[in-house]
Amino acid sequence: MSGAPAEAVTLTALETDPHPVLARLRAAEPVTWVPVLGAWLVTGYGEAVTVLRDARTFTVDDPRFSTATVVGPSMLSLDGPRHARHRAPFTRTFRSGEIHARLAAFIRAEAGRRVSVIQPRGEAELRRAVAGPLAAAVMAEVLGLGQADPAKILTWYDGIVAAVQAEAAKAGDGRAGAAADPAGQAAFAELAGHLREVIAADDGTSLLAGVAGGDSRSGSLTEAEAISNAAVLMFGGIETTEAMIANALLHLLSHPCGLELIRADRGLIPAAVEESLRLEPAAAVVDRYATADAVLAGAPIRAGDQVTVSIAAANRDPSVFGDPDAFDVRRPNASQHLAFAHGPHFCIGAHLARLEAQVAVDTVLQRLPRLRLDPRYGSSVRGLVFRKPTVLRVRWDLG
Prior knowledge:
Layout: H1 11-16, H2 19-28, E1 31-34, E2 39-42, H3 45-53, E3 58-59, H4 66-71, H5 80-91, H6 96-118, E4 123-125, H7 126-143, H8 150-172, H9 182-200, H10 207-211, H11 223-254, H12 256-264, H13 269-279, E5 285-290, E6 294-296, E7 299-301, E8 306-310, H14 311-314, H15 350-367, E9 372-373, E10 381-382, E11 388-389, E12 393-395
Parallel strand pairs: 2-8
Antiparallel strand pairs: 1-2, 3-5, 4-12, 5-8, 6-7, 9-12, 10-11
Helix pairs in contact: 6-7, 6-15, 7-8, 7-11, 8-9, 8-11, 9-11, 11-13, 11-15, 13-15
């Protein structure tokens, strides 16, 4: 393949600026064996949908799935009836109507509070001043952690993320089964302890108390299973939402035309969030494992092979999205993106994440006059699996 043979693909390129490489891979063959990943990389939109829909052939239920190693089996790492049993108790809570009724006012108040803290300064780093603490506070509210310090929650989250990444690295280089990351274990143990207290102090409104206390034979969740799923919800609810907010703001502040459209019509904010999700999904890739031999777009996949779906590549497939590298807040089909995956593992928290991102963008733009990127710092998106700016430093006018 001219310019980017799969054998020449590097982790550095995939982490820093993957889109040119992914485009060339997709143009040559939408399913390609990439040695540095030790996996088939799916870059075509149609092929991505096929894999994500077919949990029988392409499963998450595999020992190499790193999240389960850290927090235990959950809706994220199971398929079939076991997946349904773990997911079902949480479904109602995350429906759009429930989310808006229970959490919209809280999200608006928390976003306003976070922006009020930085407003007098004239400059800030928005990822950890607004996006991360907002996502952490919302997940604390959802999980019943009450007034838990968002900074503490972010510490647990950072530890669990580091442990998951360490497990993935061990699996990738053949060290699966090696000793677990002690800091990650400690973070999860501390979180689990707090969640057990929430379950034990059931006040009749606790989400976790409502889904826990059963056993696997009755079809309900045990306490341990409820905690594993809560950890997954927290992991996803902070990681992807923080990234959604930071990426959306970065895209708007980097594209003056789009920003002016939003300033003229705040009703376009949901569309801008969807376009940002398409252009730079928070979760760039998702892993599956073949349960049987299969042929996908001519690729001879063998049972046991890892199949990595590049959401980032599928979201820029030119057969679906015209001018795919452009940020267009008026793109008519932006919502066809796969940023929340597809099929049985479609993100259960998609409605909540969208609401948080929309409120955060609206609040920041409304309360910080002439908001702009701070030219003294760079704000590029990075990440192999989860993509967001490491820092998002901005300035605004005072007075």
